[in-house]
Amino acid sequence: MKTTQAWGWLLAGVLAAGMNAVYYDGGVRWAHQAIDVAADRSASVFDRVLDRISAGADQVMARAQMVSASSETASCRFATALARVQSKIARSQAEVDIISARQQAQMDRIEAARARMEARMEAQAAHFRVATVSFPAVRINPDICPRIRVNVPRPPVVRIPAPVVHLELAGNGPV
């Protein structure tokens, strides 16, 4: 009874190790694709939920600032006007923060998609195996290699006689 159970566990372990090796070598293509699809979907759902939570939190903060600014009683018109300007600035700052958070979330999603695409390309490139070819080293032995002789004809030499110059001097004086 115990030996049968031991053999069963051993068989399960060997089968699991074999499946793990096949999976990591890329042999189970459908499993890789299913995991990629699940990761993409969960990342997009997570990003949407995070966007909604951050937008809601920013809106709650903006409303809380407006309520606190309006609940303060001002003793003069200048203080009231100043409180209004401050609340408008706080609202516009909250809107800018919301927009920048959305843009940052979008950039993060794009970066994650780029990283996933690079990982897929690397995984696909890993499946292509190029056979290496080795060529024997070529050694040239100067003793075995014949010499090549080249005859270059010399151009004919043309002899030109030197010109003869005759000077006639008129008179006996120095020249």
* Average pLDDT score: 76
Helix content: 55-70%
Low-confidence stretches: none
The sequence of SSEs as H and E is HHH
Number of helices, where a helix is a run of at least 4 consecutive DSSP H or I residues = 3
Radius of gyration: 46 Å
Computed structural class: mainly alpha
What is the fold's blueprint, element by element?
Elements: H1 2-24, H2 29-71, H3 77-127
Structure report:
By secondary structure, the chain is an all-alpha fold. It has one domain (2-127). The protein is 67% helix and 0% strand. The chain is built from three helices and no strands. It has helices at residues 2-24, 29-71, 77-127. α2 (29-71) runs antiparallel to α3 (77-127). The longest helix is centred in the middle third of the chain and has 51 residues, at 77-127. The radius of gyration is 46 Å and the shape is flat. The termini are far apart. The relative contact order is 0.06.
